Amino acid sequence: MRTGRPQTLYEKIWDAHVVDRRPDGTCLIYIDRHLIHEVTSPQAFEGLRTVGRTVRRPDLMLAVPDHNLPTTARVDPQGRSVAVADPQSAQQLALLRKNAAQYGIRYFDATAPEQGIVHVVGPEQGFTLPGATLVCGDSHTASHGALGALAFGIGTSEIEHVLATQTLLLKSSKKLEVRIEGSLGFGVGPKDVILQIVAQLGAAGGSGFVAEYTGSTIRDMSIEGRLTVANMAIEHGARSGLIAPDEKTYAYLRGRPMAPKDHAWEAALAWWRTLPSDPGATYDKRLLIDAGTIAPNVTWGTNPEDVTPITGSVPDPEQFADDSRRDAARRSLDYMGLVPHRRMEDIGIEHVFIGSCTNSRIEDLRAAAAVLQGRKISSRIRQAMAVPGSGLVKRQAEEEGLDRIFIESGFQWREPGCSACLGMNPDRIPAGERCASTSNRNFVGRQGPGSRTHLLSPAMAAAAAVTGRLADVRELMGNARELTP
Ligand SMILES: CC(C)[C@H](C(=O)O)[C@@H](O)C(=O)O
Ligand code: SF4
């Protein structure tokens, strides 16, 4: 039984993983889980080879290809694997396969039913666990904090360090509490919550902090919804985003392939139950949001903090007090082809992307399908893609008949991967065209050179597909207002 001063979830996980504490406060931290994808790992393995080291704990690692994989059929009608056309992608994918085999790391190949985006696969397999330290060479690793894991992205040299030693040298972070209280309105979901948080904190507002999302809104959220929230911790600058594990977390994990079993499960559960922040634990910074004030949100600019309710308008850069924000807003509007005061609902779109590690889980697909059921996408839409986050999500969606709803409405139903979230595979948005996207970044060129991204929730993306413009899903579900093609 712990006595002494009340601790936060973050402090408890940190303390449980300190291998060595240096006089300057830097700690050598034990890493429990390491996810590996094809983009950031080849050089790390190469570095390991160069210095003649090996992988210390391959059993604590899981490798999955996701970024470079095309989302078109991976097996031809004769049952043969389809080769990846892009030479650089093909090489990175081949290296991941080779490195995993050489070092005995568990690996899901492109055609494995379990393949998917690392941040979807980890929780789904029960690889991600409460109280664990989890790393991946990827900035959206904080996603796993939704299950109470201390998870963060690392660079290639750190990947090499974890491969070799299963530890990292780290400085502890300040503690930020983001508390959201109350019920979300009709048509408002977890994506709207995290966009609201990013808007209120700003892109750098969480810098130097590990965030903990608390409050009744988070407690009432499903694990899928919590994953959407924690996924974007990096977009408000936080190193990690944590959510206390609870009965929902345990129910979600129980029986997953890589979760502990039998006695190990009981022992893990006993520890997990001690993890939530103690009453009276303190934070260095706090943000409180009333869930009732959150509307369906959408971005207008080229930074995830550029958020407005769908009922709002494109802001006037001159209204920003801060010089750098004003300049950034001017450049954003120029890139996005938008003018101040334009109503968000009057912005026509040509592409819709439902997918990415933010919003490609079963509940996301259900939310979009609920809007699309019995409706067709607008004739303005050139391409609408639904990309499940993993093969298992895809299979479940198909069992529920969601694929039929997507296809009948005019969507393409793709194989799992990062897809149009970023232009590292053939799924790209052409220059000057506009995409309603459920992903997490709207940076310049993110979905392809010159592409214009509006971030929103799966339900809002479906509403945009049906109307051919950014639309308020709450209104659509009552009365559809089409934009003339
Ligand atoms: C390619 C990868 C390193 C990158 C990341 O670090 O996040 C990508 O996943 C992203 O979302 O921008
Ligand atoms: S889906 Fe997008 S954000 Fe997530 S890991 Fe892939 S590229 Fe990064």
Q: What characteristics describe this protein?
A:
32% helix; Aconitase, domain 3; 3-isopropylmalate dehydratase large subunit; alpha/beta; binds iron/sulfur cluster; binds 3-isopropylmalic acid; 2 domains; 485 residues; disordered C terminus; Aconitase_4Fe-4S_dom
Main beta sheet, described? Answer: 5 strands, parallel
Structural category is alpha/beta
The radius of gyration computed from the alpha-carbon positions, rounded to a whole number of angstroms, is 22 Å
**Class of the largest domain, according to the CATH hierarchy?**
Alpha Beta
CATH superfamily of the largest domain: Aconitase, domain 3
Per the CATH scheme, the topology name of the largest domain is: Aconitase, domain 3
Poorly predicted residue ranges: 479-485
Outline type: globular
Task: Provide mean pLDDT, rounded.
Answer: 96
Q: Work out the helix count.
A: 16
Bound molecules: 3-isopropylmalic acid, iron/sulfur cluster
How much of the sequence lies in strands comes to: 15-25%
Oligomer: single chain
Major sheet: order of its strands?
5-4-3-6-7
What is the second-level CATH architecture of the largest domain? 2-Layer Sandwich
